[in-house]
Design a protein that fits this description.
Elements lengths: L2 H28 L15 E4 L4 E3 L8 E6 L6 H15 L8 E6 L7 H8 L6 E5 L2 H10 L4 E7 L2 E6 L3 E4 L5 E5 L5 H12 L1
Parallel strand pairs: 3-4, 4-5
Antiparallel strand pairs: 1-2, 1-5, 3-8, 6-7, 8-9
Helix pairs in contact: 2-5
Protein backbone atom coordinates (compact mmCIF):
# COMPACT_ATOMS: atom_id res chain seq x y z
CA UNK A 1 0.00 0.00 0.00
CA UNK A 2 1.47 3.40 -1.01
CA UNK A 3 1.77 6.33 1.36
CA UNK A 4 -1.01 8.16 -0.55
CA UNK A 5 -3.34 5.14 -0.37
CA UNK A 6 -2.62 4.78 3.36
CA UNK A 7 -3.39 8.49 3.92
CA UNK A 8 -6.68 8.26 1.96
CA UNK A 9 -7.72 5.15 3.90
CA UNK A 10 -6.97 6.89 7.21
CA UNK A 11 -9.01 9.95 6.17
CA UNK A 12 -11.94 7.74 5.13
CA UNK A 13 -11.86 5.86 8.43
CA UNK A 14 -11.79 9.17 10.31
CA UNK A 15 -14.72 10.57 8.33
CA UNK A 16 -16.75 7.40 8.85
CA UNK A 17 -15.98 7.39 12.57
CA UNK A 18 -16.88 11.07 12.89
CA UNK A 19 -20.10 10.54 10.96
CA UNK A 20 -20.95 7.55 13.16
CA UNK A 21 -20.33 9.67 16.24
CA UNK A 22 -22.65 12.40 14.98
CA UNK A 23 -25.26 9.77 14.14
CA UNK A 24 -25.06 8.24 17.62
CA UNK A 25 -25.25 11.67 19.28
CA UNK A 26 -28.31 12.55 17.17
CA UNK A 27 -29.99 9.29 18.17
CA UNK A 28 -29.30 9.83 21.88
CA UNK A 29 -30.38 13.50 21.71
CA UNK A 30 -33.60 12.44 20.00
CA UNK A 31 -34.44 9.70 22.49
CA UNK A 32 -36.36 12.05 24.80
CA UNK A 33 -38.91 12.60 22.06
CA UNK A 34 -39.46 8.92 21.38
CA UNK A 35 -42.71 7.39 22.62
CA UNK A 36 -44.01 3.84 22.65
CA UNK A 37 -47.03 5.06 20.74
CA UNK A 38 -45.01 7.21 18.35
CA UNK A 39 -43.49 6.42 15.00
CA UNK A 40 -39.84 6.25 16.13
CA UNK A 41 -39.84 3.41 18.65
CA UNK A 42 -42.71 1.25 19.76
CA UNK A 43 -46.24 0.94 18.42
CA UNK A 44 -49.58 -0.17 19.85
CA UNK A 45 -49.72 -3.91 20.47
CA UNK A 46 -51.89 -6.55 22.12
CA UNK A 47 -49.92 -9.57 23.33
CA UNK A 48 -50.04 -12.03 26.25
CA UNK A 49 -48.11 -11.97 29.49
CA UNK A 50 -46.71 -15.01 31.30
CA UNK A 51 -50.00 -15.38 33.18
CA UNK A 52 -52.07 -15.60 30.02
CA UNK A 53 -53.46 -12.07 30.44
CA UNK A 54 -53.66 -9.54 27.62
CA UNK A 55 -51.00 -6.84 27.78
CA UNK A 56 -50.76 -3.70 25.65
CA UNK A 57 -48.50 -0.68 25.28
CA UNK A 58 -50.46 0.90 28.16
CA UNK A 59 -48.36 -1.25 30.52
CA UNK A 60 -45.41 1.03 29.72
CA UNK A 61 -47.12 4.16 31.04
CA UNK A 62 -48.05 5.38 34.51
CA UNK A 63 -44.67 4.41 36.01
CA UNK A 64 -41.08 4.03 34.77
CA UNK A 65 -40.21 0.73 33.09
CA UNK A 66 -37.32 -1.43 32.03
CA UNK A 67 -37.85 -3.23 28.73
CA UNK A 68 -35.67 -6.11 27.51
CA UNK A 69 -35.98 -8.35 24.45
CA UNK A 70 -34.57 -11.87 24.75
CA UNK A 71 -35.48 -15.57 24.82
CA UNK A 72 -35.52 -18.33 27.41
CA UNK A 73 -33.12 -20.68 25.62
CA UNK A 74 -30.44 -17.98 25.65
CA UNK A 75 -27.30 -19.43 27.26
CA UNK A 76 -25.79 -16.30 28.81
CA UNK A 77 -27.06 -12.80 27.93
CA UNK A 78 -30.70 -13.26 28.97
CA UNK A 79 -30.26 -15.04 32.33
CA UNK A 80 -27.53 -12.55 33.22
CA UNK A 81 -29.75 -9.60 32.30
CA UNK A 82 -32.74 -10.96 34.25
CA UNK A 83 -30.49 -11.41 37.28
CA UNK A 84 -29.01 -7.92 36.87
CA UNK A 85 -32.38 -6.19 36.51
CA UNK A 86 -33.74 -7.88 39.62
CA UNK A 87 -30.54 -7.12 41.58
CA UNK A 88 -30.48 -3.43 40.60
CA UNK A 89 -34.10 -2.93 41.65
CA UNK A 90 -33.49 -4.66 44.99
CA UNK A 91 -30.27 -2.72 45.61
CA UNK A 92 -32.18 0.52 44.96
CA UNK A 93 -34.92 -0.68 47.32
CA UNK A 94 -37.54 0.05 44.67
CA UNK A 95 -41.05 -1.09 45.60
CA UNK A 96 -42.23 -3.90 43.27
CA UNK A 97 -45.03 -1.75 41.84
CA UNK A 98 -42.88 1.40 41.41
CA UNK A 99 -41.09 0.21 38.25
CA UNK A 100 -42.35 -2.09 35.54
CA UNK A 101 -39.83 -4.65 34.30
CA UNK A 102 -40.59 -6.59 31.12
CA UNK A 103 -38.96 -9.46 29.25
CA UNK A 104 -40.33 -9.68 25.70
CA UNK A 105 -39.41 -12.91 23.96
CA UNK A 106 -38.17 -12.83 20.39
CA UNK A 107 -38.70 -16.61 20.30
CA UNK A 108 -42.47 -16.86 20.69
CA UNK A 109 -42.57 -20.19 18.86
CA UNK A 110 -40.97 -21.84 21.90
CA UNK A 111 -41.65 -19.28 24.62
CA UNK A 112 -45.29 -19.86 25.55
CA UNK A 113 -46.76 -18.02 28.56
CA UNK A 114 -46.25 -21.14 30.70
CA UNK A 115 -42.64 -21.53 29.57
CA UNK A 116 -41.91 -17.87 30.27
CA UNK A 117 -43.46 -18.14 33.74
CA UNK A 118 -41.43 -21.24 34.58
CA UNK A 119 -38.30 -19.46 33.37
CA UNK A 120 -38.82 -16.09 35.09
CA UNK A 121 -40.53 -16.88 38.40
CA UNK A 122 -37.57 -18.74 39.97
CA UNK A 123 -35.30 -15.81 39.04
CA UNK A 124 -37.48 -12.79 39.77
CA UNK A 125 -40.94 -11.85 40.97
CA UNK A 126 -40.48 -8.37 39.47
CA UNK A 127 -40.04 -9.18 35.78
CA UNK A 128 -43.07 -9.97 33.64
CA UNK A 129 -42.68 -12.07 30.50
CA UNK A 130 -44.46 -11.10 27.28
CA UNK A 131 -45.21 -13.37 24.33
CA UNK A 132 -48.04 -14.08 21.90
CA UNK A 133 -48.65 -15.18 18.31
CA UNK A 134 -45.25 -15.10 16.56
CA UNK A 135 -46.11 -12.55 13.89
CA UNK A 136 -47.64 -10.21 16.48
CA UNK A 137 -44.60 -10.50 18.75
CA UNK A 138 -42.19 -9.92 15.88
CA UNK A 139 -44.19 -6.92 14.69
CA UNK A 140 -43.94 -5.44 18.18
CA UNK A 141 -40.17 -6.11 18.33
CA UNK A 142 -39.68 -4.57 14.89
CA UNK A 143 -41.49 -1.44 16.07
CA UNK A 144 -38.74 -1.08 18.68
CA UNK A 145 -36.07 -1.55 15.97
CA UNK A 146 -34.82 -4.60 17.85
CA UNK A 147 -32.43 -6.95 16.06
CA UNK A 148 -32.74 -10.74 16.24
CA UNK A 149 -31.60 -13.50 13.91
CA UNK A 150 -32.06 -17.27 14.03
CA UNK A 151 -28.89 -19.32 13.94
CA UNK A 152 -29.22 -23.02 13.15
CA UNK A 153 -27.59 -25.51 15.50
CA UNK A 154 -28.38 -28.44 13.21
CA UNK A 155 -31.61 -30.33 12.70
CA UNK A 156 -34.53 -28.49 14.27
CA UNK A 157 -32.34 -26.87 16.93
CA UNK A 158 -31.51 -23.17 16.80
CA UNK A 159 -30.39 -20.23 18.87
CA UNK A 160 -30.85 -16.50 18.36
CA UNK A 161 -28.51 -13.56 18.08
CA UNK A 162 -30.35 -10.54 19.47
CA UNK A 163 -30.21 -6.96 20.72
CA UNK A 164 -28.96 -7.03 24.30
CA UNK A 165 -29.50 -3.55 25.78
CA UNK A 166 -32.32 -2.59 28.14
CA UNK A 167 -34.61 0.32 27.29
CA UNK A 168 -35.23 2.65 30.25
CA UNK A 169 -38.65 4.30 29.93
CA UNK A 170 -40.15 7.14 31.92
CA UNK A 171 -43.73 7.10 33.21
CA UNK A 172 -45.00 8.36 29.85
CA UNK A 173 -43.46 5.38 28.06
CA UNK A 174 -40.70 7.48 26.52
CA UNK A 175 -37.19 6.11 26.11
CA UNK A 176 -34.86 8.17 28.29
CA UNK A 177 -31.82 5.90 28.43
CA UNK A 178 -30.27 2.55 27.51
CA UNK A 179 -28.45 0.11 29.76
CA UNK A 180 -25.88 -1.93 27.85
CA UNK A 181 -25.26 -5.61 28.48
CA UNK A 182 -22.83 -5.96 31.41
CA UNK A 183 -22.81 -2.21 32.01
CA UNK A 184 -21.22 -1.17 35.29
CA UNK A 185 -23.85 -1.83 38.00
CA UNK A 186 -23.49 1.63 39.54
CA UNK A 187 -24.03 3.25 36.15
CA UNK A 188 -27.08 1.06 35.49
CA UNK A 189 -28.57 1.87 38.91
CA UNK A 190 -27.95 5.59 38.38
CA UNK A 191 -29.96 5.47 35.15
CA UNK A 192 -32.84 3.76 36.93
CA UNK A 193 -32.66 6.17 39.87
CA UNK A 194 -32.73 9.12 37.46
CA UNK A 195 -35.97 8.00 35.86
CA UNK A 196 -37.52 7.51 39.31
CA UNK A 197 -36.91 11.20 39.99
Amino acid sequence: MTRTTTWIAAVLVGVLALGGGFGLRWLMDARDTVSVTGTELGAPFALIDQNGETITEAAFTGRPSLLFFGFTHCPEVCPTTVYDMDTWLRDLDVAPDAVGAYFVTVDPERDTPEFLREYLEPQSDRILGITGPPEDVWEMARSWRVYWQKQSLGGDEYTLDHYASIFVLNDEGRVVDLIAYQEDPESAKAKIAAVLG
